Amino acid sequence: MKVLFFLSLTFITTLFWAQPPNDNCVNATRLCDEQPLTANNNGATVTACPNCEDGSSIAGNFCFSLENTTWFMFNTNSVGGDVSINFTNINCTDDPTYDNKLQAVVLNASIPCNESSYIAVSNCETGSNTDFSLTAPNLPPNTTYYILVDGDLSNTGATNPAECFFEITTSGVGVEILVDAGPDQEIEPESSTVLNGNAPNNFEWTPPNFLSNTTILDPTSSPEQTITYFLNYTATDGCLYQDDVTIVVSEPISIPNTITPNEDGINDTWKIGRIDNYPGAEINVYDRWGQIVFSIIGYTDARRWDGTNNGSKLPSGTYFYSIDLKTGSDNDIFIGPITIIH
To answer: Which residues in the chain come in under a pLDDT of 50?
Structure first.
């Protein structure tokens, strides 16, 4: 009895989940601009009659007979214009009793989900198992449109309409939503920068850490460490659009503490990272008695210290440096050890 109960429950569960959630127009799946969605029409049904949600099964009402319909929807933006609906990665049931092609069209419904108000506004795909696109030109702004996707049943020998997985994406000026958090930036510790975002109204920056304001496009950021901000915009149809920007907080220069001037071409000279950003920097190196063994203003790749003093090799040991970037800030003066290893 327990085994029979388990099998029966499995069968009931399979039937329950057989139909996709967007099997009808009322439950059409929302598409967001340039956000691919993986979907399928496996187990979909059709309600084909005048004034029904799916529509008439008579060829010509749309451009194909309805077999197992699934529905999607999108909103145009505040500008409107051309919209493309792209179908990719089509993978249909590999069974000779099933057809293997999808058919699709974009519909306008002046009365939502009422077949009597449906008007096709795109080209009609009557059967394809390779990538294809629907093009809906010159759509007016702030309008809801529906995409009807159906399995074909025209192949010789096929007794079931095509059931396929596919990826569907909307694009084009009619649905484009611009959200740009601006370019990544690099700043020094204890400094600030201004973000340069671009988005429609009702946006928000997250996280709020170190930001002067989360609801303006150009807030000031004063981070204590490297941080990534997200510029978020939620459209009136519920679609979320997001872009990110990273503010890298780095020391103005990176200072190695060891050189090995053995002429093997590796670490033979003292390479100070980003020092070329400070052409007026003053650098001094001292021995343990405080005598200057190297001094320069304007440290370049061609003038790196090679562990010598006036052309003579210095012995292995620990020396000490002072680096003044000459920016006027005490934070840009560095003192520390540098070791020569032969």
So the answer is: 1-17
